[in-house]
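Example 3.2
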Amino acid sequence: MDTLPSWLGCDSTVTLNLTVVQTSVSIALPDTLTCLQTSVALTSTASTSFGTLDYQWTTIGGAFGSPTNQPNATATAPGDYILTVTAAGCSSSDTVTVLQDAVMPNAVIVPSAMTLTCTNTLILLNGNNSTPTSNFNWVWNAQGGSPITNTNTLIVTINEPDTYRLIITDITNFCKDTATVTISQNITPPVANAGPDIQLSCTVPTVTLNGTGSTPSGNISFDWSTMDGNILPPNNTGSVAADAPGTYQLVVEDLANGCRDTDLVVVTVDTLTPNAQIALPQGDLLNCNNDTLTLDGSGSTGSQFVVYQWVGNIFNQQGTPIAHTSSPGNFTLMLTDTSNGCTDSTSVTIGTDYLLPTADAGPDDSLSCAVISVQIGGSGTSIGPEFTYEWTASPGGAFLDPTDLPSVSVNEPASYLLTVTDTTNGCTNSDFTIITRNEIPPVANAGPDYVLNCTDTSVVLDASNSTIVPFAELAWINSLGDTISEDVQVTVDYADTFFCHQFGFLYQLRHGRGLRRYGGTRGRRRA
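Structure, written as tokens:
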């Protein structure tokens, strides 16, 4: 209650009902502005205890992208943003700061420009000087669509002219920077001109190859080469000298771009020089196989006017391509082309090889009853794969081994001849040895056969009629193979077959019922 004075001095009493108005406002923390997110939402929460709220956004350093009289607003720039709400004349405010991360990377390409040439066919584009190089990614592309390998690396290799672009993106704020480089190309080749074809002759042994007509002039290099001719040095000038027929190649290089061009020039001869050749079909040695050798010059080349001349001790065959000789020494074939006077010659040397092999048939020897075969052939015989051997016997003779060996065994008396041939030169040599026989065979005589009976109960086996030679052995052997005596005479009292053995001659005596002869040859006796 309040008392109000009047203008006439009268007092009046007024009664008022008062209401307290309370307002509040809060702004949510906004996002950060980046190169990708160029605006952020400003969201508020407000209340009043009486009346209707009015909203008013203001900023210090910022900028709005929406009306400023709404509960929510849009900020498009960093700064401080204030929201004031009013109700029934009462107001409240809240402030929020909008931040921005828009730091730009720096894209740099090295080299800044370059030209592809015939020698520089690949170029490395290097983005390592870009900053910063962490938390970023890289992408290369070409304006003209030229291919790029590994486009997500800082270094790429290119081989085509184009405008290349490196785009670097900060993956935290998505800010980008771009660098470009233009790669040009110079691959225009020069034009090589080796000049016209040219000829050599016996009177013009050297010609000049002229490549100075090549273009462009003044900034090119020259390189002459040949596979079948001959260039007189130097070979890196515009004009060079050649002294042999063949195909010559000129390579011209533009020093500005390394590009090359090639041209050929053919050098021929107007008169062919003859080429003397001597073949020795029988070899270069006179020997036992060949006492005359052929000198064959038919492999020589030249025109139809070539004349042959031999120097050396040949048979009467001058003027022909083939000659013969039976003398060692040096031989020369000279060719002259009478149409141009060109000549050529070649020489060979003929030697001799008449060296005889050695044949050694070994010492003379003899056969006997104890020695029924002997080996012939001495240690002095030439041995080797180049030698052949042949044994012959006269008269008679008998070989126990093949007769093409340096040493063989024989078992009959004869004169044995060894012939040794050296297959490399055909020369042979011979030697012989004489084999005799020295044997007197024993003759075994077991005496007459006998028959034992009741009266004659024993019998004397008598070999005294045998021919006993020195060193002979005598033995009586029964049918069981037992030796019963080595005496000339022996008494036996039982029936059996007895053998008298002397140097392998066997005779048998059999005592039994009746008389029966068994196999044998002579001197057999039975009882």
